[in-house]
Design goal:
mainly alpha, two-stranded antiparallel sheet, 4 strands
Length: 103
């Protein structure tokens, strides 16, 4: 089954063209494991403070800090949302990268 998204969608001052992809393709792409370095790199790529990224994700600044220091890793919906935001911001990351080392 194909889902279509037409037009452009705004996110924190960025406007992203929406593409047509299958739901299965999108689900696989946005299921990933994020490590501390990737979260920090995404935030810097977007030019956001921890507080601003937290607001975009609907979480607390302390949570973003804990992800960036490696105290905790984003999981579940947070990890998927980070992947979606990264994709739309043009941030290059690798799904599951560093999973074996810190797993």
């Amino acid at each position: 089954m194909m889902r279509e998204w037409a037009g452009e969608r705004p996110l924190h001052g960025y406007t992203f063209p929406c593409t047509v992809q299958s739901v299965t393709e999108k689900k696989a792409r946005y299921t990933t494991s994020w490590n501390a370095a990737q979260v920090l790199a995404l935030r810097r790529h977007m030019g956001l403070s921890q507080d601003a990224l937290a607001e975009e994700l609907g979480t607390r600044q302390q949570t973003v800090s804990e992800w960036e220091t490696g105290r905790y890793r984003p999981r579940g919906a947070s990890a998927k949302l980070l992947s979606l935001v990264a994709d739309r911001a043009g941030f290059e990351y690798r799904a599951g990268e560093d999973e074996d080392a810190h797993g």
